[in-house]
Structure formats: structure tokens, C-alpha cells
Inverse folding.
């Protein structure tokens, strides 16, 4: 009998989404229906259904054949992966084409499940809902750029408002402009002028950029900056930096774009159109920042199907708890560690005023035992890499760097920080960097006390009392006060400028 996979959560069958877009047809299978679904399998086929639809009104025959083959393959893949529910949706190309209804009939036969043809407003709503699912307290305007259209939707108080759709996708612009950037600019300017009310809602707020073309632009921007964290979700670009970068992309010749190795060959011809749309949005909308979202319509569709209680869960803490269950020696110990550190921080006057620091504390505690199965010499490095590239949402790049550096130092100690990539420390910034070292030093006291077992930390409180750092051990655990723990307390005393003391209750 084959043993059950231990590296997966016990949350039922996987769920799948198939997105029939203007540029690609994509299957994404998620581990299950959870607050932070993790991708088990992801495959796209670039069919170009939307190519020339803006000019001819019809889906290209060869693109239809390509899409139907992809859907038949995806049906087989879902069967092999024992996917429970498959949600299939079609967007701009299918809704705009004269032969769209006939294509959808054949597509349903190929994939074996009903297809939801999304209106532009519905697509904008789901894309915004995907952003809500992936960011902590998201607020701003979402722009989802596909091959056929651009959807804009406002998010206020974590709830998407009604959105609009504009025929400004890369393939549509390429067709309507005849390849002329000058003509494309006029098309974009006119469309945004007609949507001025929606565009101006982003003034002084965050603009969340969704879609493959904009992710490719962000990947190129990272390569240009030699940015060390090669993740798109939560990547921030300032409008000023963005304008200069986008101008470079927009005016680059085709051969230059074809040579960009960090971007797929199929995306490169559309980069300049995506850059042009973004540039005009920045000029008219005046956002305070551009933030890339790796989550959009597909994740919005899954998020919509959760109940209200699940939707209200913090995505960072949900994802961290899942990794805690899968990777730690004692999940309950990591939860107790969070409470132990909370108690100390409440007593310590040196706690910095950092927005959202408590949730970062809790996430770091849940992730703190992630490297225990690695060789002792490499636990810190594995923790750094695992958290740096984990499928976490609800955290920005400085917060992610904070979590990775905290766990690295929890294993390796403060001296090892010298060998960490300075670019990663720069992403965290001085306040979070210093706080990561303090939190790691606290963990380096907690682990010799508890040996990662539950039920110990609640009985061994650590608090700041005046000028003293007091660790209390209950009767029966006095032998824990050995040289290793004493040295760790000295390190913490140095970090907090408090005098370390260990006392046994009742003595």
C-alpha cells in the first residue's frame, strides 16, 4: 500500500481553475480550497485567441484548434490529479468574437465542465478580489492587463467596487495600431480619458498591477536593478522610477526586447504595449506606488467561494500556519513561542514602532522551526531560502526579508549576519533588520529552554522588569539553567541593555 503523502495538508481534494484568455489558456491546480491555496500544478499554452479579433471580429482558426487541444489535455491532467472541482472561465477574446459562442460550445465538450463567460465587470471584480485575497488590508485600484482588455476596479475597506473594462490589452493594441506605437498611444490616451473617473481614483493610492505582461515588465525591472528576491508578488516600483524604466522599454527596438532572457519569448512583443499603458496610467492616475500582484481572477474566484470567516483570516498567518503544520517538530510549540514573545514584548520598553510588527512576530514564530530536518551546518541557509521564496501572501518584500533574516539568525546567531547578501538586508531596511536580530536572539533563548516541545514555554516566562531581564524556570526544570542557556541570556541582555537573570520559582 502506497503511504499517504505527508507533505500535503489534509484539506480534501485539489481544486482547479482553467482560464481561457486572449493570449493564453492556463490550468492551475491548487492543493485545496483554503484561505491561501498553494499551487500544485501550473501549465499554460500560448494560443493567441485574441489575435486579430479587434480587426476581424473572429477568433483565429488555428488559435481555436490550439485552445481545444489544450483543454482536452487539461481535462486528462485533472483526472490524473484527482481534482475535485474544476472552474473554467473565458474572458475578452471569447466574449468579443462573433464565433465566441460556437468556440465555447466546443470548449465545454473538450474540458467536460461548464464554462463561465466573464463580463468585463465580472472580470474586474474577480481580479480585485484576487488582490484582496493576497494583500494585508489592500486599498487602491487594481488594473488587470490581459491580451484583449484592461480591467480597472477600486478596492476600499478590503471590498472591490464595480469595475470597468477597456480594449487596451496587448494583442488588441497591437492589432488596432497596426504596430504603430504613436497610434497605440492615441488609442490608450483616448480610452483613459473616457475612464477618467476610475483612473483618477488611484491618485495618491496604490496601483495593483495584475497580468502576465506587467509581471514580465517587473521581472525585467528586477533584472535591471540586480534585485535579489526574484518574486513578483508584492514587488514595489515608485512612479518616478517606473516612468524612466517604462520609457526605456517602450522605445526599445524589437531585437533588444527579443534578447531579454528574463522574459518569455511569447511575452516580449507585448512588453512595449504594456509599458505604454502603464506609463499613461501613471501620468493620468498619479498613484503613490505600483505594486505587482501575482494573484488575480483565478484566486479571486476561489476566494469568492470561501465563507465570510475564512475570508477574514490574515493570509500571511494562514500560510505560515500551514508551513508550521507541515515543517515543524511541534506545531503547538511554535504557537506557544508567539505567545511567549508577545509577553516579553509587552514588558519591554525598547520595542520599536513598526506598523504590523506583531503579525510579523507571529509569522516568524510559526516559521521558526522550518529548517530542523536540514544538516545542522545548513539549517540557517535553508531557512533563509525556504522563507525567502515560500508561497507566502499578505506580506511585502521588506516583511518577507524580515522573516527570512529572523529565522536565519535564530539558527546561525548574530555573527553570521555578515555573510548574508547585503541586498537582502537593504530590502528589510534598518528598523526591520535590527528587530529581526532582536527577535532571533529571543528565539535563541526559547529553544534551549523548550527543545521545541509544547507545554514548556507557558511555564517559563521571560519578562523585562526594570533594568533586569528575568527568565523564570519552574521547580523541576532548574537543570535547564546550564552554560548554553546562560550564554544565550547574556547575548539577549546585551541586545536589550538589560541585566540577565535566571530564577527558579519557589527558591
Amino acid at each position: 500500500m502506497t503511504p499517504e503523502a505527508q507533505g500535503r495538508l489534509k484539506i480534501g481534494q485539489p481544486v482547479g481553475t482553467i482560464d481561457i484568455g486572449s493570449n493564453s489558456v492556463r490550468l492551475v491546480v491548487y492543493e485545496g480550497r483554503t484561505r491561501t491555496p498553494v499551487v500544485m500544478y501550473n501549465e499554460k499554452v500560448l494560443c493567441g485567441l485574441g489575435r486579430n479579433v479587434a480587426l476581424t471580429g473572429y477568433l483565429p482558426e488555428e488559435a481555436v484548434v490550439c485552445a481545444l487541444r489544450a483543454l482536452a489535455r487539461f481535462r486528462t491532467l485533472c483526472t490524473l490529479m484527482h481534482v475535485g472541482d474544476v472552474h473554467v472561465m473565458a474572458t475578452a477574446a471569447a466574449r468579443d468574437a462573433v464565433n465566441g459562442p460556437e468556440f465555447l460550445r466546443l470548449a465545454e465538450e473538450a474540458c467536460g465542465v461548464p464554462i463561465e463567460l466573464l463580463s468585463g465587470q465580472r472580470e474586474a471584480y474577480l481580479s480585485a478580489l484576487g488582490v484582496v485575497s493576497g494583500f494585508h488590508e489592500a486599498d487602491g485600484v487594481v488594473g488587470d492587463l490581459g491580451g484583449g482588455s484592461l480591467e480597472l476596479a477600486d478596492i476600499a475597506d478590503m471590498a472591490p467596487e464595480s469595475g470597468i473594462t477597456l480594449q487596451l490589452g496587448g494583442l488588441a493594441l497591437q492589432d488596432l495600431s497596426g504596430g504603430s506605437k504613436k497610434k497605440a498611444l492615441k488609442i490608450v490616451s483616448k480610452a483613459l480619458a473616457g475612464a477618467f473617473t476610475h483612473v483618477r481614483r488611484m491618485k495618491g493610492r496604490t496601483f495593483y498591477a495584475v497580468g502576465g505582461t506587467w509581471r514580465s515588465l517587473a521581472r525585467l525591472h528586477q533584472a535591471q536593478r540586480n534585485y535579489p528576491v526574484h518574486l513578483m508578488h508584492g514587488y514595489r516600483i515608485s512612479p518616478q522610477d517606473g516612468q524612466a524604466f517604462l520609457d526605456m522599454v517602450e522605445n526599445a527596438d524589437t531585437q533588444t526586447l527579443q534578447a531579454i532572457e528574463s522574459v518569455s519569448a511569447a511575452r516580449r512583443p507585448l512588453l512595449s504595449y504594456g509599458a505604454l499603458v502603464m506609463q499613461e496610467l501613471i501620468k493620468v492616475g498619479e498613484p503613490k506606488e505600483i505594486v505587482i500582484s501575482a494573484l488575480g481572477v483565478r484566486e479571486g474566484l476561489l476566494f469568492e467561494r470561501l465563507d465570510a470567516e475564512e475570508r477574514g483570516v490574515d493570509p500571511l498567518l494562514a500560510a505560515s500556519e500551514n508551513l508550521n503544520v507541515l515543517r515543524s517538530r511541534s506545531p503547538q510549540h511554535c504557537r506557544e513561542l508567539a505567545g511567549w514573545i508577545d509577553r516579553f514584548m509587552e514588558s519591554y520598553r525598547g520595542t520599536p514602532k513598526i506598523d504590523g510588527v506583531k503579525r510579523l512576530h507571529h509569522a516568524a514564530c510559526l516559521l521558526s522551526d522550518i529548517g530542523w530536518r536540514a544538516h545542522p551546518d545548513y539549517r540557517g541557509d535553508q531557512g533563509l531560502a525556504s522563507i525567502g521564496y515560500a508561497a507566502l501572501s499578505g506580506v511585502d518584500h521588506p516583511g518577507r526579508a524580515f522573516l527570512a533574516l529572523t529565522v536565519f539568525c535564530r539558527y546561525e546567531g548574530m555573527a553570521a549576519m555578515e555573510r548574508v547578501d547585503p541586498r537582502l538586508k537593504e530590502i528589510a531596511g534598518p528598523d526591520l533588520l535590527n528587530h529581526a536580530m532582536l527577535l532571533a536572539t529571543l528565539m535563541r533563548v526559547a529553544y534551549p529552554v523548550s527543545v521545541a516541545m509544547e507545554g514548556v514555554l507557558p511555564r517559563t516566562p521571560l519578562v523585562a522588569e526594570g533594568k533586569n531581564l528575568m527568565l523564570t524556570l519552574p521547580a523541576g526544570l532548574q537543570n535547564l539553567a546550564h552554560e548554553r542557556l546562560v550564554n544565550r541570556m547574556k547575548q539577549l541582555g546585551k541586545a536589550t541593555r538589560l541585566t540577565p537573570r535566571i530564577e527558579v520559582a519557589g527558591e
Remarks:
- The chain has a mean pLDDT of 92.
